[in-house]
């Protein structure tokens, strides 16, 4: 019986998982899981069907059963080509409709408002064709929140009927369950092939039919399946009138999907995605597809290739009499590991390619090297449909979706040449027709477009390859075919969006435009609900209709405020540059332990008059403490030790006065500073010593004392199942492999992090840090570019990307991206979070100019932020999580610690502003190093979130001779060890020795 059920699930041509919402809540360990704390209290599904189209509205009530405020996360999977077109969230007990917002802006606003402990509603498209929203707060002890999602869906042809299918295979009882289905413009009673229970039946209602049921504590026994028998070669055309006399049309075209035999290849390449995410594909379906293929193509040569973070050749197999048992056994033994890098794909010479993959290239950009037909084959729940359609469409192949259709049906795309829609004949009255690209005719074909005249015709062309073999003409009549209360324009927009997203990179601007105008969720646009009208005004987001009047009253003043942001940041940068220049010119007493007395003024030691006139005199008043500090103690800040400077001696003073006063008196110090000092003047010989931070994770016991990389890798694979979703596991083992000089295995294990979750900036920052340390600079650039794409509102995103560009020798682009940090506009909350980042960025801009100035165009750089600021020592720490506070400590040879509450040391050490939220950075500078040892530590103060990325990852960049042309750098990357019991002493990450 179990085997029969498995076969049924394997071959039945429907996607059972689509349209079933997944309700989860945080587990306190950085992940979301199903539990009984936040549950689905009520589910209401309302469907309207007319002809071959349906509009579906799913309303979900989430209940909090716990005793504290909770967050709920709803993930809603939809079939291929279907986009969410509506979203609403209850605000003060009433559902408020969302408005479309560009995805990057929606994230920025979401992050900003969260700083005020308020969560706006946002529906995003995530990996595959899944749509996700989080709901917070849900009040404790039975508190409820309501979420609503709307989508349009085309009925599929099944045999001699069109079929509406709604999966209802929920795993748990639903306390309140309502379902209502209305069918319009259908003469005969709809045929219920499968229904939730016996009470669900259609009754006549005017010119339509209604079926509904209301249940308490109900678990549906069946799905909902409604058949609408075909009546000959009927054509269904519906029209929605638009302004200006034009109209949108949607036409269901009845055409026999004829196939004709084609010559099958003698030499076949199978490219098998063996990345970490590849293990989630349905390999049973893939094997079933190949079984069907070799039944017909019985004699050929098959070459296997594997793609993960590398591209490697596998074995070659000779298939005789359809016997592919050896090939099957070979594929079933595949090891899945590593990220997915389509940039590694290589030119192949076989006749055709079968590419088994989910299309998610998590570790590189697609390399378009294949010229022969490529048949892309998907079988997992998370699929990049657009990527796979692009690969197949651009090579003359086909896309096979085993997630939604059976291998027995999809195999025909491999074995036969299918009939295709090749476009329409020219007609000036018709525009924006979709699909616009050739499309295979399976059992369903719908055409949509925009027409000008009330009545016109459209002639469709069909054929094989580029050969037109038949034509079909339809009549459009807006007076006869117009329908009310149906948004045909959204079906048109969805079809256009599907076409545009095949070439997503080239069409990004128009994708945003279509998504925004028609309220569709896409890879570039989200739907958003804000709590009050002031936020719509503040962030320049057009509100829903109910708030339009209030919005219009407030919008003008808010725009004026927003425009002031850019200038304010540059002004801060200019002030910071002046501050740094003053600090750099200042001479510090670096020999305080040696008591000095004024030297005799004499002609032999005095400088000439001209030299003396180029000096700046500085008198420094020092607090005095008669007790000497013990050498073994770290000197903490004391108010009485802080310095007060008095600049500028009287010009009437004798030329010998400065020389006479050089030195230290009790409580008074006089110093001289030359105005011009070269970078070479501050270079002292020194070295950097870094510390390996050993992981304390319990799985490290498996690797104790291991040195053999092959044994480490085997042990990693053997124990991976238990830690499969734990990024720290991959990070720690990659670290171990790099340490033992096996870069290939180390990079493969590390790249697996990219396959764990897409669009997760914490994971990709973690990845970028380690790639920088391992000097895999091209992949560091890829990772930082993805983070910038997802979070362009974070200055740290531009900084990470700029430094990766510098690592790759792209100095002008690095300079421009650093400069953008100072010219961008930020929301107030994010600007406050990152206040002080200018100091770090100014040092990095001027380092680029100092080291690579001859290769740079500085015409667009504000000259007021350009300065020569070479230093002996520079340390910068960054981290990968928002709302996190990590401190940098540097202790000098005098045991004086520079840290957040003591930012300037007596030998000239300087610490940037303390970052108590955001991603950092914090920076330590020392212009001239004194002889001795410097200790570098980090102190984990706290974080306000725990994400899927695991413990906070920290990267320290440690420099000698920064911006001198002779700088040296070492990188330390580690994840915070929460088990560290010596927190008050920080974590030692490195030392300088001079």
Helix- and strand-based class? alpha+beta
Percent strand equals 25-35%
- Count of β-strands: 49
Poorly predicted regions are: 1-17, 594-633, 635-675
Spatial sequence of strands, sheet with the most strands: 7-6-11-4-3-14-17-16
Number of helices: 24
Mean pLDDT over the residues: 84
Instruction: Using the alpha-carbon principal axes, give the shape.
Output: globular
Distance between the termini: 76 Å
What's the main sheet like?
Answer: 8 strands, mixed
- What is the helix fraction of residues, given as a range? 25-40%
> What does the radius of gyration come to?
34 Å
Q: What's this, in brief?
A:
With 994 residues, this protein is of the alpha+beta class. The protein is built from 24 helices and 49 strands.
Write up this protein.
- 25% of the residues lie in helices and 31% in strands.
- An eight-stranded mixed β-sheet has the order 7-6-11-4-3-14-17-16, with no helix packed on it.
- A hairpin with a 5-residue loop joins strand 19 and strand 20 (247-252).
- Helix 21 (795-807) packs antiparallel against helix 22 and helix 22 packs antiparallel against helix 24.
- The radius of gyration is 34 Å and the shape is globular.
- Residues 1-17, 594-633 and 635-675 have low confidence and may be disordered.
Strand and helix map with partners:
Layout: H1 2-11, E1 22-26, E2 32-33, E3 38-50, E4 53-64, E5 70-77, E6 84-91, E7 94-97, E8 99-102, H2 103-114, E9 121-126, E10 130-138, E11 143-154, E12 156-158, E13 161-166, E14 174-184, E15 191-194, E16 203-205, E17 208-218, E18 224-229, E19 236-241, E20 247-252, E21 259-261, E22 267-273, H3 283-296, E23 300-307, E24 311-319, H4 325-332, E25 352-356, E26 374-378, H5 385-395, E27 399-401, H6 407-410, H7 412-415, E28 416-418, E29 420-424, E30 430-434, E31 439-440, E32 446-451, E33 455-464, E34 467-477, H8 478-481, H9 488-500, H10 508-518, E35 525-529, H11 533-538, H12 548-562, H13 565-585, H14 609-613, E36 615-621, E37 644-647, H15 657-661, E38 663-665, E39 668-674, E40 687-690, H16 709-719, H17 727-739, H18 743-751, H19 761-773, H20 777-790, H21 795-807, H22 811-823, H23 828-833, H24 837-852, E41 871-879, E42 884-891, E43 897-898, E44 910-911, E45 922-926, E46 933-943, E47 953-962, E48 968-975, E49 987-993
Parallel strand pairs: 3-14, 22-23, 22-25, 25-26, 26-27
Antiparallel strand pairs: 1-2, 1-5, 3-4, 4-11, 5-10, 6-7, 6-11, 8-35, 9-10, 9-35, 12-13, 13-18, 14-17, 15-18, 16-17, 19-20, 20-32, 21-28, 23-24, 29-31, 29-33, 30-32, 33-34, 36-37, 36-39, 38-39, 40-49, 41-45, 41-47, 42-43, 42-46, 44-45, 46-49, 47-48
């Amino acid at each position: 019986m179990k085997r029969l059920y498995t076969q049924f699930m394997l071959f039945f041509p429907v996607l059972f998982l689509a349209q079933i919402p997944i309700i989860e809540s945080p587990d306190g360990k950085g992940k979301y899981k199903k539990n009984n704390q936040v549950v689905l209290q009520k589910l209401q599904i309302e469907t309207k069907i007319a002809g071959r189209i349906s509009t579906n509205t799913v309303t979900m009530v989430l209940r909090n059963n716990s005793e504290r405020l909770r967050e709920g996360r709803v993930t809603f999977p939809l079939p291929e080509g279907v986009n969410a077109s509506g979203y609403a969230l209850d605000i003060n007990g009433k559902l408020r409709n969302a408005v479309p917002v560009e995805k990057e802006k929606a994230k920025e606003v979401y992050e900003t408002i969260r700083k005020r402990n308020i969560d706006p509603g946002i529906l995003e498209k995530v990996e595959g064709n899944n749509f996700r929203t989080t709901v917070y707060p849900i009040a404790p002890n039975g508190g409820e929140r309501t979420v609503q999602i709307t989508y349009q869906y085309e009925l599929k042809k099944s045999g001699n009927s069109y079929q509406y299918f709604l999966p209802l295979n929920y795993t748990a009882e639903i306390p309140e369950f309502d379902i209502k289905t209305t069918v319009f413009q259908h003469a005969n009673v709809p045929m219920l092939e499968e229904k939730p229970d016996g009470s669900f039946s259609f009754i006549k209602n005017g010119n339509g039919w209604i079926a509904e049921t209301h249940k308490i504590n109900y678990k549906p026994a069946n799905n909902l399946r409604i058949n609408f028998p075909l009546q000959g070669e009927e054509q269904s055309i519906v029209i929605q009138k638009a302004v200006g006399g034009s109209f949108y049309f949607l036409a269901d075209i009845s055409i026999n999907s004829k196939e004709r035999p084609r010559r099958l290849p003698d030499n076949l390449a199978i490219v098998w995605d063996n990345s970490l995410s590849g293990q989630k594909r349905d390999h049973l379906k893939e094997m079933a597809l190949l079984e069907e293929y070799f039944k017909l193509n019985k004699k050929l040569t098959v070459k296997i290739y594997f793609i993960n973070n590398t591209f490697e050749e596998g074995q070659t197999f000779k298939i005789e009499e359809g016997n592919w048992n050896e090939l099957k056994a070979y594929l079933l033994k595949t090891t899945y590991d590593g990220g997915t890098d389509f940039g590694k794909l290589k030119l192949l010479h076989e006749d055709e390619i079968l590419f088994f993959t989910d299309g998610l290239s998590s570790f590189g950009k697609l390399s378009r090297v294949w010229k022969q037909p490529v048949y892309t084959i998907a079988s997992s729940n998370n699929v990049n449909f657009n990527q796979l359609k692009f690969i197949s469409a651009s090579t003359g192949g086909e896309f096979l979706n085993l997630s939604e259709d059976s291998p027995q049906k999809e195999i025909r795309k491999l074995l036969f040449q299918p009939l295709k829609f090749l476009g329409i004949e020219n007609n000036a009255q018709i525009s924006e027709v979709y699909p616009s690209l050739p499309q295979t005719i399976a059992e369903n074909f719908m055409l949509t477009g925009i027409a000008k005249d009330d009545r016109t015709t459209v002639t469709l062309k069909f054929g094989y390859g580029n050969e037109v073999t038949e034509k079909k003409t339809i009549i459009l009549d807006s007076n006869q075919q117009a329908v009310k209360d149906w948004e045909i324009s959204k079906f048109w927009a969805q079809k256009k969006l599907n076409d545009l997203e095949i070439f997503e990179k080239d069409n990004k601007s128009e994708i945003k435009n279509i998504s925004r105008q028609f309220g569709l969720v896409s890879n570039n646009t989200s739907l958003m609900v804000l709590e009050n009208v002031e936020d719509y005004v503040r962030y320049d987001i057009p509100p829903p209709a109910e708030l339009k009047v209030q919005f219009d009253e407030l919008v003008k003043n808010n725009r004026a405020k927003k425009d002031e942001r850019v200038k304010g940041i540059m002004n801060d940068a200019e002030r910071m540059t002046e501050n740094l220049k003053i600090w750099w010119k200042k001479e510090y007493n670096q020999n305080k332990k040696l008591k000095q007395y004024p030297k005799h003024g004499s002609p032999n030691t005095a400088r000439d008059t001209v030299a003396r006139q180029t000096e700046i005199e500085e008198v420094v008043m020092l607090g005095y403490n008669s007790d000497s500090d013990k050498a073994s103690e770290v000197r903490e800040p004391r108010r009485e030790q802080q310095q007060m400077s008095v600049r500028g001696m009287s010009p009437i003073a004798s030329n010998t006065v400065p020389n006479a006063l050089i030195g230290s008196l009790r409580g008074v110090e006089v110093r001289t500073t030359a105005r011009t000092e070269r970078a070479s003047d501050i270079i002292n010989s020194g070295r950097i010593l870094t510390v390996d931070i050993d992981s304390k994770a319990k799985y490290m016991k498996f690797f104790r004392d291991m040195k053999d990389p092959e044994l480490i890798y085997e042990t990693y694979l053997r124990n991976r199942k238990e830690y499969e979703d734990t990024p720290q596991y991959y990070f720690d083992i990659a670290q171990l492999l790099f340490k033992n000089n096996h870069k290939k295995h180390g990079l493969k294990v590390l790249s697996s992090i990219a396959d764990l979750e897409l669009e997760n900036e914490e994971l990709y920052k973690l990845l970028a840090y380690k790639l920088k340390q391992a000097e895999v600079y091209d992949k560091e650039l890829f990772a930082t570019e993805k983070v910038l794409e997802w979070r362009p509102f974070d200055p740290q995103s531009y900084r990470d990307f700029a430094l990766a560009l510098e690592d790759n020798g792209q100095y002008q682009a690095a300079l421009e991206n650093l400069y953008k940090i100072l010219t961008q506009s930020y929301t107030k909350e994010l600007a406050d979070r990152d206040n002080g980042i200018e100091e770090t960025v100014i040092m990095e801009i001027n380092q680029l100019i100092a080291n690579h100035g001859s290769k740079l165009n500085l015409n667009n750089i504000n000259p007021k932020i350009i300065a020569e600021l070479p230093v002996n020592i520079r340390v910068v720490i960054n981290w990968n999580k928002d709302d996190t506070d990590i401190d940098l400590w540097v202790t000098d040879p005098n045991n004086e610690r520079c840290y957040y509450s003591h930012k300037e040391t007596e030998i000239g050490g300087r610490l940037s502003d303390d970052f108590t939220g955001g991603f950092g950075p914090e920076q330590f500078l020392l212009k001239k190093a004194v002889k001795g040892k410097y200790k570098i530590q980090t102190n984990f103060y706290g974080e306000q979130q725990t994400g899927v990325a695991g413990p906070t990852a920290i990267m320290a960049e440690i420099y000698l001779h920064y911006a001198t042309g002779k700088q040296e750098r070492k990188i330390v990357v580690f994840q915070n060890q929460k088990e560290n019991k010596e927190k008050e002493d920080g974590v030692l990450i490195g030392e300088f020795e001079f």
